[in-house]
Amino acid sequence: MLLKIENVTKAFGAVKAVDGVSFDIHEGEIVGLIGPNGAGKTTLTNLISGVYKADDGKIDFLETNIVGLPPFKICHLGVSRTYQIPQPFPDLTAIANVVVAVLCGKHRANLSFGDALLEASHCLETVGLFGKRNVLAKDLTLFELRTLELARALATSPKLILIDEVMAGLNPVDGLRAVRLIRRLKEEYRLTILWIEHVMKVIMEASDRVEVLSYGKKIAEGPPKTVVDDPIVIEAYLGKKYAQSRKT
Amino acid sequence: MTDTISIILIYTFILGSLYLLESLGFSLICGVLRVFHLGYGIAFVVTVYVTWMFMQERGFGLGWAILAMCAFQCLFTLLIVYYPIVRRYLEKEEILLTALLLVAMIGEEIVNYFYPVTAGVDLATGLLPGISKIGKASVPNQMLVAAGIALLTTAAFILFFLKTRVGLLMRAVSQDIKSAKLMGTNTERIYALAMVLSVIPPTICMLTIAPVYSIEPTLGWSLLQTAILVSILGGLGNLKGSIIAAYILGFVAALVSFAINPRLVNVASLMMVSLVLIFRPRGIGRSESLW
Amino acid sequence: MVKIEHKRARLVFRLGDLKLEWTIEPRYWRNHFIAIALLLLLILGLSGKPDLLSLITTANIYACIAIPLGWQITGTGRMNFGPQFFVGIGGFTAALASIYWGWNPWQSLVLTILVSLLFALLLSRLTVIAKGLYFSLITLLLPLIFLEFTNIFNRVFRGETGLSGIAHIIDVGDIGRNYLLGCLMSLGLMLVFLYVVDKVLRSRWGVYAAAINDNENVANMLGLNINRYKIVTFAMTSVMIGIAGWFAAHYFGTFAGVTYLPLQFMLKVLLVVMIGGRGEIYGCVVGAYFVALLEHFLTRIGPIHYILFPFILLLLLLALPEGLYGLYRRHRYKEYYPTLKVRKREI
After folding, report:
1. Engineered SS bond to C249: which of B239, C115, C255, C315, CB 3.0-4.6 Å?
2. CA–CA separation, A58 and A60 (whole Å)
3. Distance from chain centroid for Cα C305
4. Residue B174 has pLDDT above 90, yes or no
5. Domain ranges in chain C?
6. Chains touching chain A at 3 or more Cβ pairs under 8 angstroms?
7. By percentage, how much of chain C surpasses pLDDT 70?
8. Last residue of a domain, which of A157, A189, A209?
């Protein structure tokens, strides 16, 4: 069991962004996390990676409790994430962005700066950005920024990657490239992926299992085909009337 | 004992009102333009010395000199401070702050070149001479007048922000500029108007306290320091917080002056504000918007 | 004893476990060599004129303050509007130790380092907790508080007139020689600072500084312990600035709070950083010499120099976006160009 989330709650003032969510992630899975807007998906990701501290509940990663740990310690344990709106280091080149991740991501003894650069080049080459390694991050296109995020997340040698809406804003061709890339990386680096996504096609194809959140609560889980036909899920996305009209 | 307390309370009121008047313009710029105007002191210096210049060199009477100075103040703020510096470097704050500081310094040196401390500059804008006794405290009448005018000015500004359409636009711009732009506000004009409005309190302040304040070219810096302290304590750009903060600082100044040691006034205010900053970084005010 | 190997384009010197690499290709060390040689010649050439030597020393001291400041701004991610606070601490520690306890300069150096480190660690919490504009504001207020303290404890700090009679940094009997050796020492100090900060910024800690400057939270997510890095940077740079204050006190023999603590001095240091080349440390050296020389030569013109000096600096600040050093570097591809941040925007 890689990640075990038990009854996690997080409230901002009077609004409960995440309310009693529990699920597990096993090694080697791709778990999709879906739900309508405002369901608490990004908040859950922030809770796992340590940006926020959960008010209640347990989050265990590899049998270690990670609630309350600072984000960099959680990264050293093996959790990595990408961002919905890409957040590179804008004044640094692409390779420098990845070098930061290589040097800090894990405790590595005797890693010289030159070796870190080599490893960063390798990460960039895997995602296909080697040609743009000396371009400043603020000059890259959206697709390149997304792949840079992936390269940076990979460079920290993670066991679990939290991928946050990688398809948003990409045209279908680029989207397909992104999905293929992620599946290839998962196979090569033996990753586990928690994938937040809105594009249903990707979730159906790529994920083994899907969790559905709505207004902070988990409302369904299971293989993609089952979840998509579940009336509760349809009601959450499209409203009661549509769900009822589907039943009849 | 009660004498000291009554003196302290009276001077709290007076000093607090004065501090409020001094920092009103600074809070306005902080709140609307989100600029920490380190060159604010120049407004005070310009008030006194330009009026004096018009009276000496052109032989204007006091009234005409004041009018000419107001025109000069507006032109100076728009043409030298706002358009070339603030507008160009609104995004690059480090250049902005340094440039504003430099402008204030250049202005002060120009004034010092023509009218150094020894030139004996003095404005006869006293409205009520003499000293009155309130309880056990003797207060120069001019300071009471200044405190009263401070309250009137603040009330005028608050009415302006609450009741007029332009005031509403300013409050909107200070809360969320992107939404204000989406709603069709001409933010450039609001910014320019805010800058011009921000020099009105310093002008009024200097004109009223000129008879009881020591006039020298470096007077801008201590007034700037007061404005900074009031703004920081009250929350940058928050008018409500600034009003409360001004009276708190007035109280601290009065208490330290009359009950402890007059030499410690400055350091007491500075330390108090630093401590508040460390423990409550937002200051007293709830939000960083104007009202 | 020292083993020398020739590996591709480098010479590698080994002494036990230590290794020093030197690139043979002149391109890498030619400019540094020329600059240091020019400065040395300049100082030796001026050996008869103590006032010009003091000018060069002043320039070196400005550079010694600006170089760690450049590292601190990127390493903590915020602009520090009160570097002169640590100049004051260093200078007053050295002055008080020398006058009241009769210590020689090297003993007071140790004390300066300890006191600066103490204050830096006390204040380092600020880099971690203060958000938005507030770090800059607190650093703006600190030197003013210190100045008030020097005025209140007048008997100890001699507020207005400053402390005098501080032991000179080096005493060989002849005053002319003293000044010359002191000037050479200031050049040495500046070169040491330059070397240390350059090495740091070219290594992984420089990349960490750049990452923190750009986006702290993401750097935190990637495994960098930002609080520890910020505290260490703040402490080290503050100690370096304190050492610059120590040198100023011992070279000039006097140290007054009103010279080094008010806003005017802060402005000079800030302008050295910005006009020289926006956070670039080699640019700080260029900026320091420019500001010191400009100040000195404008004094000849007469009382109007008080107006001209800030005016020229303002024009340069607005006209040169990359600073004076940027004029030289413009034709070379710059890999890292930091944006100086004053206000930390929360995500």
Report:
1. C255
2. 6
3. 26
4. no
5. 1-45, 49-269
6. C
7. 91
8. A157
Q: In C, which residues are within 8 Å of A96 by CB distance?
A: 207, 210, 335-336
Residue written as token pair 């000093």: B15
A123/A230 same-domain check: no
Using a CB–CB cutoff of 8 Å, tell me whether C340 touches chain A.
no
What is the structure's pLDDT at C231?
93
Q: Which domain holds residue A138?
A: 89-157
Of the candidates C95, C105, C102, the residue with the CA atom closest to the CA atom of residue C161: C95
In the predicted structure, residue B108 carries a pLDDT above the cut 60: yes
Token pair of B42, please?
């120049």
Interface contact A192, partner C, CB < 8 A: no
Number of other CB atoms surrounding residue C59 within 10 Å: 25
Encode pLDDT of A59-100 as tens digits: 999 888 999 899 999 999 999 999 988 999 988 889 999 999
Last residue of a domain, one of A157, A174, A189: A157
Using an 8 Å CB-CB cutoff, list chain A residues near C218.
83, 87, 89
B222 interfaces chain C, CB cutoff of 8 Å: no
A contact residues 40-79, partner C, Cβ 8 Å cutoff:
49-51, 70-72, 75-76
- Identify whether A83 is part of a domain: no
Tell which residue, A204, A230, A185, A221, has the closest CA to residue A5.
A221
The two beta strands, A15-25 and A3-12, are antiparallel
Q: What is the 3 state secondary structure string of chain C?
A: CCEEEEECCEEEEEECCEEEEEECCHHHCHHHHHHHHHHHHHHHHCCCCHHHHHHHHHHHHHHHHHHHHHHHHHHHCCCCCCCHHHHHHHHHHHHHHHHHCCCCHHHHHHHHHHHHHHHHHHHCHHHHHCCCCHHHHHHHHHHHHHHHHHHHCHHHHCCCCCEECCCCCCCCCCHHHHHHHHHHHHHHHHHHHHHHHHHHHHCHHHHHHHHHHHCHHHHHHCCCCHHHHHHHHHHHHHHHHHHHHHHHHHHHCEECHHHHCCHHHHHHHHHHHHHHHCCCHHHHHHHHHHHHHHHHHHHCCCCCHHHHHHHHHHHHHHHCCCHHHHHHHCCCCCCCCCCCCCCCCCC
Do both A148 and A181 map to the same domain?
no
Task: Please tell me the pTM assigned to this model.
Answer: 0.88
pLDDT at C338: 67
Do A67 and A36 belong together in one domain?
yes
Kindly state whether residues A151 and A167 are assigned to the same domain: no
- Co-location of A172 and A238 in the same domain: yes
Hey, is the C-beta of A110 within 8 angstroms of any chain C C-beta? no
The verdict on A141 and A168 lying in the same domain is no
pLDDT for C117-137, tens place per residue?
A: 999 998 888 778 766 677 888
Query: Chains meeting C at 3+ CB pairs closer than 8 A?
Result: A, B
Residue B145, φ and ψ in degrees, nearest 5? -60, -45
Rounded to whole angstroms, the Cα distance separating C54 from A59 reads 64
CATH number of B2-124+134-279: 1.10.3470
Going by the DSSP 8-state scheme, the letter that residue B77 receives in this structure is I
Q: How confident is the model at residue C346 (pLDDT cuts 50, 70, 90)?
A: very low
Partners of A51 on chain C (C-beta within 8 Å) are: 217, 221
pLDDT at position C188 is 92
Whether the CB-CB separation of A53 and A62 falls below 8 Å is answered with no
Closest CA to A77 of A91, A65, A90: A65
Angle at C69 between CA C64 and CA C71, to 5 degrees: 110
Domain count, chain A: 2
Task: Give the residue extent of every domain in chain B.
Answer: 2-124+134-279
B49 close to B284: Cβ distance less than 8 angstroms: no
Q: What is the largest CA-CA distance in chain A?
A: 67
Assess whether A98 and A28 both reside in one domain: no
Q: What is the spatial distance between Cα C85 and Cα C140, in angstroms, rounded to a whole number?
A: 9
Classify the complex by whether its ipTM is higher than 0.85, answering yes or no.
yes
